[in-house]
Write a structure and sequence with these properties.
The chain contains 8 helices and 7 strands; from the N terminus they run βαβαβαβαβαβαααβ. By secondary structure, the protein is an alpha/beta fold. A 7-stranded parallel beta sheet has the order 3-2-1-4-5-6-7, with helices on both faces. Bound molecules: NADP nicotinamide-adenine-dinucleotide phosphate (NAP).
């Protein structure tokens, strides 16, 4: 099917790379007008490559005032906001004995506070313009534990419950905003390449990550983007507060 989000206006965070970029490209291909955001200025080129009316804007998701500026700007120019995909995130390896408070706080600032700020700004705008759909990229680490990802698991678990609370608020007719979380296992992106490097940089590390899922491989960005597309579109109009995995079977065992 084509044009599954025809006429909708979307903001995607973390859109210079990996899953965010893939989601932005998918939503654009399916008819949405997409505002791609990232702290990495390369997002401007990624937006330009998609062509008008799509556009890349620099936004650090931890910047409260920056969020309001971007959402106001999008509504002023496009007339509304229908979709927000919160994909910006960071992951630092570390078990509870080796993780530092600095890294823990950094992950919380980006992965949790960034999502909180984005959802808050977006709900305000969506409510004024007829409602919308928010998709938060959590992780299987928000559902099942990994001993080497203490802070990351904590942050992604927080995204899961923040999403459900927003969904309960958004279910009111006067708000009309759906909010769902997506939980990927290891996906082939620069983040996972960085993780493999931190684990020793060998093919062995890459293979270990691939074998974490019963399907025995890394997921592809497109496989996450199709789920995000479904949740962003009206096809999922009765789905809110859901936690949806795209994990090659990892959480099924
Ligand atoms: P990625 O390739 O590293 O892309 C993440 C993007 O977010 C990067 O462009 C990054 O910019 C940006 N970013 C980081 N901090 C930011 C901030 N404060 N403000 C704005 N942008 C920021 O990672 P990915 O694999 O696509 O991950 C996307 C999301 O999926 C993350 O939330 C991640 O936790 C989640 N996830 C990923 C996997 C996986 O296996 N890849 C699995 C489960 C969940 P910089 O390059 O400048 O940092």
């Amino acid at each position: 099917m084509a044009n599954r989000v025809e006429g909708k206006v979307a903001i995607v965070t973390g859109a210079a790379s990996g899953i965010g970029r893939g989601c932005a490209e998918m939503l654009a291909r399916e008819g949405a007008r997409v505002f791609l955001t990232d702290r990495d200025p390369r997002v401007v080129d990624v937006g330009a490559a998609l062509g008008a009316p799509h556009e890349g804007l620099v936004l650090d998701v931890t910047d409260e005032a920056g969020w309001q500026r971007v959402v106001d700007d999008v509504v002023a120019r496009a007339g509304k906001l229908d979709i927000l995909v919160n994909s910006a995130g960071i992951g630092v390896l570390g078990d509870i004995e080796h993780a530092t408070l600095k890294e823990f706080r950094l992950m919380y600032a980006v992965n949790v506070e960034g999502v909180f700020l984005g959802c808050r700004a977006a709900v305000g705008a969506m409510k004024q313009t007829g409602g919308g759909s928010i998709v938060n990229i959590s992780s299987v680490a928000g559902l099942v534990a990994d001993p080497n990802l203490a802070g990351y698991c904590a942050s992604k678990g927080a995204v899961r419950m923040l999403t459900k609370s927003i969904a309960m608020h958004g279910a009111r007719k006067s708000v009309n905003v759906r909010c769902n979380s997506v939980h990927p296992s290891f996906i082939d992106t620069p983040m996972v390449a960085g993780m493999a490097e931190a684990m020793g940089g060998t093919d062995g590390a890459h293979e270990k990550l691939a074998k974490a899922a019963p399907m025995g491989r890394l997921g592809r960005v497109e496989e996450v983007a199709y789920l995000v597309l479904y949740l962003a579109s009206d096809e999922s109009s009765f789905t809110t507060g859901a936690e949806m995995v795209v994990d090659g079977g990892l959480t099924a065992r």
